[in-house]
Amino acid sequence: MSGQTGIFHLINKVMFHILFSGGRGEDSSVIITLPECSAFSDIPEEALAKVFNYLTLIPRQPGVKFIIILDRRLDTWASIKMALARIAASFPGNLHLVLVLRPTSFFHRTVTDIGFRFSQEDFMLKMPVVMLSSVTDLLRYIDENQLTSEFGGTLDYCHSDWIVLRTAIESFAVTVKDIAQMLQGFGTELAETELPDEGKAIEYLLDCHTTKYRKLKDAIRSVSKEGRHLLSSLATSGKEDDSQWDVKLDWETVQRLLAQLRDMESAFDGFFEKHHLKLHQYLQLLKYEQSFQELCLEHLVAQERELSIHVDTLAQTEQGLKRLDTLECNAQDVMARAQIIILHGHQLSANHHYAMALIMQRCNELRHHCDTLNCALKTKHSRLLHAHQLLLCLGQAQTWCDEGAYLLASQLVDKFQSKEGAQAALRDIEKFLDGAPSMLSSGPDVIAVEYEAVITPQLQVRTRSLFNRQACLRKLADKHVRPVQLVAPRPENPPRAKSPLFSPNDFHVCSVQIEVIHDYQDSRSCVSYSLEGEDSPDLLKRHVMRELIETERIYVEELLSVLLGYRAEMDNPALSGILPPILRSKRDILFGNMPEIYNFHSRVFLQALEGCLEAPEGVGACFLDRKESFQMYECYCQNKPRSEALWRQFSDCGFFQECQKKLEHKLGLDSYLLKPVQRLTKYQLLLKELLKYSTDCEGTSELQGALTAMLDLLKSVNDSMHQISITGYEGDICELGRVLMQGSFSVWLSHKKGATRMKELARFKPMQRHLFLYERALLFCKRREEHGDGCDKTPSYSFKHCLKMTAVGITENVKGDVKKFEIWYSGREEVYVVQAPTVEVKMAWLNELRRILTNQQKLLRGLWEHHMLYVI
Fold it and tell me: Which residues cross the membrane (predicted)?
């Protein structure tokens, strides 16, 4: 800042003695005028050097030259000599010429001529000096329209106006620099500010930062206004005189400073917007955490655990139900607040909050606590009601027993002296017995099982006591044949039919559909761009790249819409009423590993493809580098039949219709669940198009490798889809390794020790077998007839035989048919003659078999060499 203040001082003090008119000499040399000035010798050397340096920096052209006009017409030779010496010592630029107007008086002119003659060589070694007798001599070196009026020229120049203008420009530059420092300081303050843990402190920080931001914005607007005003003044001066090149330079300088100011303002706005958003989201997170902590869910859970369902009296049961009702009422209020917090958390996540993972974790915790508490309250309410029912029944039975005892005790003996009286008493007793409570007809064991969850030891004792009283009353009420002779009572053991506790369930066998992905070539492919050969291959490649990237973006958006619009909505409490509970528990079956696929494409693959837009030659490497990641599609496709079966079961569910309505999708969810399979087949078509337009180009080999990898992936997915329908294999099929190939063949089998007749017979009756080639084994299966109608038709493969690859050999050619080859096992103990549908299929299988056997030999050879080395 002190340097800039010094420049202002020099402009206002020293520059009054040095003129910068903007005139030009020969070779566009810039003219600097040193007019008559008695105080020139008083200017300090340092100040003079700074002024000269400042003036040489005003023209911004490289290699610019300067001409100095030294007006000393009223001065002496000593003054001229001193001035030339100071110019030679202080001028930093490329000095083209020094034009000296010598003194006009006869004496001083003569002295000057003599002095210059003797000193000329000294000055000429340092700078070119020309001594002029009059103003007219200047016209030989400088055109008159480049000279000011005091030298007989026509150049319009006001030195005081120039000083005012330069002062304004330098002041504006200093202000812009100050603004930059202020913005940098404020940015550093924002970046280094420690965030408090209280909401009010965050709000205060937001207000302070916003206030400072607005003040800085006002300062920027004020400086911009000042710059535009200065620019307008310069533009007006330039229109009045187009020849003034220094005005144009000043205009460019101010324009550049304004551009810097705009760039700083734009960068500052972006930085503050991000900081303000982060601070605002931090405040939202604090409030959300505070709301989460203020919920009394844990307190309610503790109260629920303290509430016992083991009661022995009706009063305890009714008191427990009242406490439970109060607790449920409080819980409903708290859970309603929890649902609001969960909804708020989903809204924050939808707005891409930076703490989305933590917020969703809190939402899941709240949902889990609410579900657990709600389930526990419902269970306890049900059990308390059950206990209340048991106690009511016990009370009724107790009352019945008491009334029975009273009935027997109140019978008058005189009444039994007559037949009619005895029969009437007997009818009364039988009527009373018929009105026994229903629980007494069940037996104590049934009661114990029925009320197992709520019955206490005291209630068990009470129950058995009641049944014992019932038995005693029945004995007392039994009929005796003679009033005197005791007769053993007739045993009354009414059969008690036990209802089964478990009923057989119907098991439905769900068919699994295999979806075979075919490699197809459509003659009217959507990526065929060439129109009668008018476009160049490079342009066509760019067309294909654009389609690849655009369709990838659409694909990612569609996956996200499914995950948010369907999968995430399964956790939405507002839709729980129309969502079957079993469907929520099977969401991973319905959607498979679609979240994993979305994360890969949105975070990794799409960005990598976008980086290849201007360099299509890199797209092959883009696929190859992520070849392993694409294996996740195999898992998705293997799950697809289960997903489709689940969809067919619940496709008419109101939940799906509501979600589709919200998303405004024209197609149902099943169409979007098919998108990953369709996208996988689309890649190889686009790669083929790119390869077609990339002959002998950079990256062609990687592109061919990418196409091969995607075709291999499609084949692997197709093979694995068939593998899941193998039945009857005992053991873990995963131990056989990865499925390499599969297909249907005609097979003849012969045994080395078998009868010749059986071998001959086998040659005429081939078996139709479906072969699965694994890394460690070869499976022979029989394809079963497809069952079901329409889309439910599914093939299955019954396991027949397994050959370990360590004992397998092959014979590539069989006489009589080029499509046949032999697979022999255990030194030709078993020989399988296999007939492929085509020669191409045969060669593909032979190549794969040879590769497996060769790798086995290399492995065995390596193990043997290692063993021998160890032995030696």
Answer: none
Question: How many angstroms from the chain centroid is the CA of residue 489?
Answer: 84
Number of Cβ within 10 Å of residue 526's Cβ equals 12
Please name the residues in contact with 712: beta carbons below 8 A apart, sequence gap of 6 or more: none
pLDDT classification of 563: cutoffs 50, 70, 90: very high
Separation of alpha carbons 156 and 161, rounded Å: 11
Are 595 and 557 a contacting pair, CB within 8 Å? Answer: no
Over the range 255-284, which residues count as b (16 or more CB within 10 Å of their CB) and which as e? eebbeebeebbeebeeebeebeeebebbbb
Burial class (CB in 10 A: 0-12, 13-18, 19+), 516: exposed
Report the distance separating Cα 55 and Cα 19, nearest Å. Answer: 10
Please give the backbone phi and psi of residue 132, each rounded to the nearest 5 degrees, phi first: -110, 145
Residues 742-763 have pLDDT tens digits of 999 999 988 765 544 344 444 5
Q: What is the phi/psi pair of residue 90, to 5°?
A: -110, -20
CB 835 within 8 A of CB 819: yes
594-615 burial code (b ≥16 CB/10 A, e <16): beebbebbbeebbebbeebeee
- Neighbouring-strand partners of residue 824: 809, 831
Alpha carbon 685 to chain centroid, angstroms: 27
Tokens of 721: 């889809």
Q: What is the dihedral of CA 646, 648, 654, 659, to 10 degrees?
A: 70
- CB 417: neighbour CB atoms within 10 A? 10
For 196-222, write each residue's pLDDT tens digit.
Answer: 777 788 888 888 888 888 898 898 888
Cβ within 8 Å of residue 317, ≥6 positions away? 311, 384, 387, 388, 391
- Tell me the pairing of strands 65-71 and 94-101: parallel
Q: b vs e for 840-851, b when ≥16 Cβ sit within 10 Å of the residue's Cβ?
A: eebeebbeebee
Helices (H), 727-838: 756-764
Sheet holding 777-783, edge to edge: 726-727, 797-804, 777-783, 767-774, 739-751, 830-835, 820-825, 808-811
CA distance 186 to 209: 9
Q: What is the DSSP letter of 481?
A: S
**Among 376, 392, 375, residue whose Cα is nearest residue 318:** 392
Do the Cβ atoms of 836 and 742 come closer than 8 Å?
Answer: no
Amino acid sitting at position 452:
E
